[in-house]
């Protein structure tokens, strides 16, 4: 049986740099420290991708339905969330009639209020 061996650190860093430079056709993963809005945008992108796959549509089909260029549509399908506003992605999901529920969890950060005695 073959065991999976993680690539050397140098190779891993090279691939990460290459992906970071990519403009298209590279799936962008969600960062571990993603904000609630980034998580919601990522979910919308994945939902639209799922719609495309479930309905066996081409990228051109989706682009036409959304009124976007193929390049802009690929940015959605490859989760380039930095290129879109949350509202924009929600509108695209609505245009496609994709059922999707979003829940944005915003962690409560308790701040200490400094008080001074006079």
Task: Please characterize this protein's 3D structure.
- There is one protein chain.
- The protein is mostly helical and 118 residues long.
- It has a domain at 35-105: 434 Repressor (Amino-terminal Domain).
- The chain has five helices and no strands.
- The chain has helices at residues 9-21, 36-54, 59-66, 70-77, 86-95.
- Helix 2 (36-54) runs parallel beside helix 5 and helix 3 crosses helix 4 (70-77).
- The chain is globular and about 45 Å long.
- The mean pLDDT is 84.
Radius of gyration: 19 Å
Beta-strand portion reads under 5%
Q: What is the ordering of alpha helices and beta strands? A: HHHHH
> What is the CA-CA span between the terminal residues?
74 Å
Task: Assign a percent range to the helix content.
Answer: 40-55%
Shape summary? globular
What is the β-strand count? Answer: 0
Low-pLDDT residue intervals, each spanning 5 or more residues: none
Helix/strand structural class: mainly alpha
CATH class wording of the domain at 35-105: Mainly Alpha
- The number of helical elements comes to 5
State the major sheet.
none
Please name the CATH topology of the domain at 35-105: 434 Repressor (Amino-terminal Domain)
Proper CATH architecture of the domain at 35-105 = Orthogonal Bundle
Task: Name the average pLDDT.
Answer: 84
């Amino acid at each position: 049986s073959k065991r999976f061996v993680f690539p050397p650190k140098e190779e891993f860093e090279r691939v990460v740099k290459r992906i970071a430079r990519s403009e298209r056709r590279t799936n962008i993963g969600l960062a571990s420290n993603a904000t609630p809005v980034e998580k919601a945008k990522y979910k919308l992108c994945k939902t639209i991708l799922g719609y495309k796959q479930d309905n066996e549509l081409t990228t051109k089909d989706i682009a036409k339905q959304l009124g976007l260029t193929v390049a802009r549509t690929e940015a959605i399908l490859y989760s380039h969330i930095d290129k879109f506003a949350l509202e924009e992605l929600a509108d695209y999901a609505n245009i496609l009639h994709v059922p999707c529920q979003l829940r944005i969890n915003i962690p409560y950060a308790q701040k200490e209020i400094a008080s001074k005695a006079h």
